Amino acid sequence: MSTTRTRHFKGPPPELSISIKALKDVDDIPIPWESRGDQSQVPTELLLMTATDEAFLPCYSLMEHVEKVYHNTLGFVYFGEFKDTNHKHQSVKVALMKHYEGVCETLKAVTNAAHVLHPKVTILVGTCETLERTIKVKPGDVVIATKLATYDDDRILPKVSRNVRTLILSAGHGWKPPLKDPESLKVKVKTALMISGSDKIKNRESLKNLQKDFPDALVIEDGGRGLYEAACDLKMEWAIVKGVSGSAGESEEVSESWKQFSSTMAASVVYDMFKYIVLQNWTRERELAGDTKDVSNAETAGSNHSQRNVN
Fold first, then answer.
1. pLDDT value at residue 41
2. Annotated region Disordered: where (predicted)?
3. What one-character DSSP code corresponds to residue 184?
4. pTM exceeds cut of 0.85
5. Is pLDDT of 1 > 70?
6. Which helix (H) or strand (E) holds 227?
7. What is the CATH number of domain 29-275?
8. How far apart are CA 85 and CA 68, in angstroms?
9. CA distance 289 to 278
10. Helix (H) or strand (E) holding 229
11. Residue 27 CA to chain centroid, in angstroms?
């Protein structure tokens, strides 16, 4: 594979055309869960899961009519809408949550949230890294998983869920990156095999071995396998949409400035793809209704994901 060190790996990212809220601007007045009434009567169509503030804030900033609600098992959930500028009365009902990083923590958080919120699709939004400085993808680009390769047990998992698999064929079509100067960076949307595992890998020799094991993989991330296992167990639509923040193994300082920019690109792609007209006929797994047990044992959940709840 030919590689190059492009200028996109150096310097700050370009300016955005949208305003991303700071943590201090996030709604700090929660309302009681009971005030939302029966959750089945206030359906969630899109569940966004984020592990970092850099990913949370762009998702939050794109939402309108946001309510901060506390649930004993889930913690804070931010309910809101993605408005469709072309169809003002066709908004998408969104729930946004944060979770701890890692496969088991993601599995636990997604499972608990799905039992309560019954989403039509759950999406992991955040950042990923390239395996090397490659001409195929650069910081700011968005990668959507078509499959996951797991380095913990060296295997490739089945394809992404049915409806999402069809939808991502047109990923990026007509999407306009939220850039103040559209010519400042040619942001691309890619669909590809992602490598996922339980920990971040920084050792360059290990990264080279992963490239040999999974030559078709474009990027590496952590946490996606947890979403996959939860979604398979729950028969739920799922997607992993992540912005490239840098190259795996490089210093944190190099990629840090790109993390929120890349997460913003990923959140914008989600906003663009998952419209009301797309989701209106997608179904929920109604058998989840009323089942809100807490998956409290993450290790057991990770090793035995065929069970719906682990007490």
1. 57
2. 289-311
3. S
4. yes
5. no
6. helix 224-234
7. 3.40.50.1580
8. 24
9. 23
10. helix 224-234
11. 22
